[in-house]
Specification:
The complex is a heterodimer of chains A (648) and B (132). Chain A is α/β, with parallel strands linked by helices and 648 residues long. In chain A, α3 packs antiparallel against α4. The longest helix of chain A is centred in the N-terminal third of the chain and has 60 residues. The N and C termini of chain A lie far apart (65 Å). In chain A, 48% of the residues are buried. Chain B has 132 residues and is an alpha+beta fold. Chain B contains two helices and five strands. In chain B, strands 1, 2, 3, 4 and 5 form a five-stranded antiparallel β-sheet that branches. Chain B is rod-shaped, with a radius of gyration of 26 Å. Chain B starts with 7 loop residues before the first helix and ends with a strand. The chains are: A alpha/beta (648), B alpha+beta (132). Chains A and B meet through α1 of A and α1, β4 and β5 of B.
């Protein structure tokens, strides 16, 4: 090859390599530009689809039967568009067919399968479009605001907790599975979104879940005490949409069910059904709710007495409960208290009551180191503490020590002289054998009054006795029938308890009976079937353990609510409060500030002035807020973004 | 063996062709690099806009505000922590400034638009509609 030819070939090769390199860079650049533009437009399409979901919610809020859909509807700034179409009345819905099932009480079909759209729910499938790119969003929409997010206590603003505070959660009232339960404040900025302060030495904050707030302020969560534990303590957390229950509309919907005139004073008994009262109401006496009765007031409600029973209190105004309260929400709605404004709970200070009772007794020869009542009270506290700690640290009934538990139960409830070796922390030795050898029973005899408060305390102590007394003891004393060796009689009592027909007047102590049966006869098929043993181990005994936990001496006289306690404004409680369900202060600015017992709360704020316990119960709220789910503002319950090219 | 070089005309012609080729290639190369830079800017700006939009959604800021506009280029003062940090600027390849517009459409819907500005004349917009 000549030199000229070589140079020519060499130059051509170099040129080709350079051209290819530059071409590669150019192609890569173009790919990068395409990729960046694709990402941008895909994101725009996604936001357009989400805008379509929001706009569909707007349409459905005005007309729950809306099925017109959208066809290339432009977003407000006109740069993108979205489409939504509903499934035809007949035929199988396709992958892009939305389903409006808001007005139906039964499940509907969708492309996800038969019955895949729950009652009173809509499945919205929206295709967003931007510069030729598309994304599809699927969203389930229903009323009743959002579901609770696993929070036993949630507020839109500041939450202030004092004294002993326990927060935990369970999957259901009859289940055995603990679930995380948190405390959450939606305060957006600033300090003291959540504050806990111990009042006395030994006060404890225990959260079996997360303490969280939206505020990222360094002082957003202040725990002013050393004795606390929580799974997580986190600020700068996402905003949680709280249930948005339209209490005013719910109240108005009951206007056609007026209640009987309320007496000027004295007890009020409401038996089943809805009882609507227009205007502010003051009830000077105890209120008894029976068979799921609902007390509905279109105005402020003030109850200068106790509120007890199964039912709900629904108030389009402020609700002030000045007596001890014990409201069990009915099993369909799990609502205890709804207020369009704020809730004030005075509760009843059972600890102070018993403490005062103990201190009021003069010293005696039998109690040279203090009053006998004070020592009984000390016995009660230490034994209940022991029981609670023992059950907490031994969650599996298989590990329970029958003898040790009997010894402590014998301090707290009645039984034969031979039942348990009483473990006292005091020097008391001269208590009569039966039935008052137990310290709590002996303490109860010091309550001599007959007023509602005295009766309330007697009732609470009686409940402890019903749960913890010996299996062979009824309220009347030793029961010969329960002494026979044939334990099938015990099993029958247990089955009556399970079926809701247990009569504490004529039956033995149910906890002792259940745990004795389980520990001593679980493998004896003539007494317990394998299924009954499993039910005892996994459901009944853990549930009873939780009941004992609820009976903690420090909450003997507390206000108790089972179900949702909901205020659109704030909540003030000055004494012990137990909520088995969830407490929510939604923070509606229209509710305005509220002052009670010298404490002012803004909407969304919660002030728990004394010890409190919040136990989140998951299955109460799994389908929205029970039967109230179809009421209130429509919202997205769950959603997902379809992947591009997803095969359906 | 005869050793024959290139004539002057050949050399000049080759240089001219080579120069045109090199200049063309350089122009193409610069264009490609510019595209690459532009795509990086777009990606960064998209990321800034998406991050801000998601923070607004996560904190449900649209709900209490009604109709508001915040221009990070000025910058306006934030109210009640809105818009959430980082705001109004983010330094990546360029300084990306953001503008947020919230407009109440009705009692349950809010239009939220996030504009991202960078490099004087470049911008992009993201928009959606949120419910409370």
């Amino acid at each position: 090859m000549s030199r000229r030819a070589f140079v020519l070939v060499f130059q051509l090769l170099v040129t080709a390599v350079v051209v290819m390199l530059i071409g590669a860079i150019l192609l890569h650049s173009r790919y990068q530009v395409f990729s960046a533009q694709s990402d941008l437009h895909t994101l725009r399409a996604q936001y357009a689809a989400e805008a379509g979901v929001s706009n569909a919610i707007g349409k459905l809020s005005g007309d729950t039967s809306w099925t017109a859909g959208f066809q290339r509807e432009a977003t407000p700034d006109g740069r993108c568009s979205y489409s939504l179409r509903f499934a035809p009345a007949s035929g199988t819905p396709g992958p892009l067919d939305s389903v409006n099932n808001l007005e139906s009480p039964s499940a509907a079909d969708s492309y996800l399968g038969p019955g895949s759209v729950p009652p009173h729910t809509a499945l919205l499938i929206v295709e967003g479009r931007a510069n030729g790119y598309t994304r599809v969003v699927e969203a389930f929409v229903a009323g009743g605001g959002d579901w609770l997010h696993g929070d036993a206590l949630a507020g839109a603003d500041k939450l202030r907790l004092q004294g002993n505070v326990y927060v935990d959660g369970y999957d259901s009232l009859r289940g055995a599975q603990p679930v995380p339960a948190g405390v959450h404040s939606n305060l957006r900025s600033g300090a003291e979104a959540i504050v806990w302060q111990d009042l006395y030495a030994g006060d404890r904050l225990s959260v079996a879940g997360k303490l969280s707030t939206v505020s990222d302020d360094a002082g957003a969560i202040r725990l002013l005490g050393t004795n606390w534990n929580a799974d997580e303590v986190q600020r700068d957390q996402p905003y949680k949409r709280l249930p948005d229950i339209d209490v005013a509309s719910i109240t108005a919907s009951y206007a056609g069910s007026p209640g009987a005139p309320l007496p000027a004073s004295g007890p009020v008994t409401l038996n089943g059904g809805n009882h609507y009262y227009s205007g502010a109401q003051v009830i000077n006496g105890d209120v008894r709710l029976q068979n799921g009765a609902r007390l509905i007031v279109a105005g402020d409600l003030q109850i200068n007495g106790s509120v007890k029973g199964e039912g709900a209190v629904i108030v389009d105004g402020n609700a002030q409960l000045y007596g001890d309260s014990e409201v069990v929400g009915d099993k369909t709605s799990y609502v205890s208290v709804l207020s369009s404004r704020s809730v004030s709970i005075s509760g009843f200070n059972g600890t102070a009551f018993l403490q005062t009772l103990a201190e009021a007794e003069p010293a005696s020869a039998s109690s040279p180191r203090g009053t006998e009542a004070a020592e009984l009270w000390q016995d009660v506290q230490s034994s209940m503490d022991w029981m609670q700690n023992y059950l907490d640290t031994h969650p599996d009934p298989l590990t329970w020590d029958d003898t040790a538990m009997d010894s402590r139960s014998a301090v707290l409830a009645s039984g034969p002289p031979t039942w348990g070796t009483i473990v006292r922390t005091t020097h008391l030795t001269n208590l009569p054998n039966t039935p008052l050898r137990n310290s709590l029973g002996a303490l109860a005899t010091r309550i001599v009054g007959t007023g509602p408060t005295d009766n309330f305390m007697r009732d609470r102590i009686q409940r402890v006795d019903d749960l913890l007394r010996a299996a062979t003891f009824t309220r009347s004393g030793q029961d010969p029938a329960m002494m026979t060796p044939d334990k099938s009689i015990w099993r029958d009592v247990l089955l009556r308890y399970v079926s809701g027909n247990y009569d504490p007047n004529t039956s033995g102590g149910i906890f002792d009976l259940a745990q004795s049966l389980f520990l001593n006869h679980r493998n004896d098929t003539s007494v317990l079937s394998a299924a009954q043993s499993l039910m005892l181990q996994n459901q009944l005994l853990p549930e009873m353990a939780r009941q004992i936990d609820q009976f903690n001496y420090n909450r003997l006289g507390a206000a108790q609510f089972r179900g949702l306690v909901y205020a659109r404004g704030g909540v003030v409680a000055v004494n012990e409060v137990t909520v088995l369900g969830s407490l929510v202060a939604a923070g509606d600015p229209a509710a305005g500030p509220y002052t009670s017992h010298g404490v002012t709360v803004a909407p969304g704020q919660v002030h728990m002035g004394n010890s409190s316990r919040f136990t989140y119960v998951k299955d109460m709220f799994e389908n929205g807020i029970g039967s109230l789910a179809q009421l209130g503002v429509l919202g997205v319950k769950s959603w997902r973004l379809r992947e591009p090219g997803e095969i359906l | 063996m005869t050793r024959r070089g290139f004539s002057l005309a050949e050399v000049l012609f080759a240089l001219a062709v080579g120069a045109v080729a090199v200049l063309t290639l350089i122009a193409v190369l610069i264009g490609g690099l510019r595209l690459l830079a532009k795509s990086q800017e777009t990606s960064e700006a998209t990321s800034v806009g998406r991050e801000l939009m998601e923070r607004i959604r996560a904190r449900n800021y649209a709900h209490p505000l009604g109709t508001e506009e915040f221009d990070g280029r000025v910058p306006d003062a934030a109210v009640d922590g809105f818009p959430p940090a980082p705001y109004p600027r983010k330094q990546l390849k360029f300084i990306y400034s953001t503008r947020v517009r919230v407009r109440q459409l009705d009692s349950v819907r809010w239009h939220v638009a996030v504009d991202v500005f960078w490099n004087q004349n470049s911008s992009l917009q993201l928009e959606t509609v949120l419910t409370r």
